[in-house]
Amino acid sequence: MAATPTIDPVRLEEFMGRFVQDFGAGATAPLVVLGDKLGLYRAMADGAPVTPAQLAERTECNERYLREWLCQQAASGYVDYDAGAGTFRLPPEQALALADDRSPAFIAGAFQVLAAMVKDEPRIAERFRSGDGLAWHEHDYDLFEGTERFFRPGYLANLVDSWLPALDGVTDKLEAGARVADIGCGHGASTILMAEAYPRSAFVGSDYHEASIEAARRAAEHAGVADRATFELASAKAFGGGPFDLVCVFDALHDMGDPVGAARHVRSQLAPDGTWMVVEPFANDAVEENLNPVGRVFYAASTLICTPASLSQEVGAALGAQAGEKRLTEVLTAGGFTRIRRAAETPFNLVLEARP
After folding, report:
1. Are both 253 and 326 inside the same structural domain?
2. Is 119 inside a domain boundary?
3. Looking at residue 249, what DSSP letter applies?
4. Is residue 215 in a domain?
5. Residue 137: is its pLDDT beyond 70?
6. Exposed, middle or buried, 23 (CB in 10 Å: 0-12/13-18/19+)?
7. Is 95 helix (H, G, I), strand (E, B) or coil?
8. What is the pLDDT confidence band of residue 4, given thresholds at 50, 70 and 90?
9. CATH number assigned to the domain comprising residue 194
10. Structurally, how many domains does the chain consist of?
């Protein structure tokens, strides 16, 4: 008969406190999605105090629902509450993060991804038992749009100003006129940002997901760069049009079933003096070094999105979103790249430069 474990009441109390925090955060997520989709944050972006009735007039939403939503947002610290006046206010810092989707601090897309993860949980539970994968295109639509909105702020903050300049000689080529491939481009945020910054260069985004390619084409038209940013339906092992001076893959290599095969194909499409920029979620090489708030987020995404995506494809390497630089370097080396270095990093991304 197993011995009854001794319970440390202090540790139990600490864990229950963590549970309350986590439960509150989880419960807040759908309310942030509502605030984003209904335009509630945008309606409060001027920073002026509003009553629920005034916000109802601005948004054509029901006052009673808004009162409850505003109270929860105040309890979460997302809006301020003036008890004397009975008004709520969105501070400028929160407005930057919740109401401006062109801000490098925008976070609403992350909650949209989270909503998709929750919706898809029953399907992932089936895969835990069967070992099968769940392909990207099989997920809820919020994942496709939310992923673009989640990653775009990081690209806005870093891609043109720091990541591309960190690559050896690449910005000179882009300014003069280079040919660039962006594989696994999704809705095209990274492709379009580069096209806006380097009007003399030509950019080709590719993805196997037809709906995302259609969305990317619309976004390029809207941004006025469709003349130099085009999009094609193709997998990472089948895109063409080389040789390219620069090939990019943003937060997608670890999702691929055969990342080594993709690396070999990139090698075949690259100019002799070309560069492959690989942007991946930040991770250290040892599991214990990733047991932190950022690793917590990425391991969750890896469990529900990235690993199932890879397992749904041929080979099914399942690198996961916390592969780390050592494992990624092994993949690039196996694909035929001999010069690999960490060119840049942020708390959320590793940027590797790979050359033949």
Report:
1. yes
2. no
3. E
4. yes
5. yes
6. exposed
7. helix
8. confident
9. 3.40.50.150
10. 2
- Does 106 reside within a domain? no
Asked if residue 194 and residue 92 are part of one domain, the reply reads no
CA distance 6 to 303: 32
Average pLDDT, the chain: 96
CB 249 within 8 A of CB 185: no
List of E strands, 23-178:
80-82, 87-89
> Both tokens of residue 193?
């940002």
| Same domain, yes or no: 189 and 272 | yes
Name the 3-class secondary structure at 248: strand
pLDDT digits (tens, 9 = 90+) for 109-133: 999 999 999 999 999 999 999 999 9
Question: In Å, how far are 82, 109, 285, 298, 303 from 117, measured between CA atoms?
Answer: 35, 13, 26, 12, 10
Element (H, E) at 5: none
Residue 278 lies in a domain: yes
Tokens of 22: 């986590």
Q: Name the residue range of residue 305's domain.
A: 150-355
pTM, two decimals, is 0.92
CATH number assigned to the domain comprising residue 21: 1.10.10.10
pLDDT at res. 1: 64
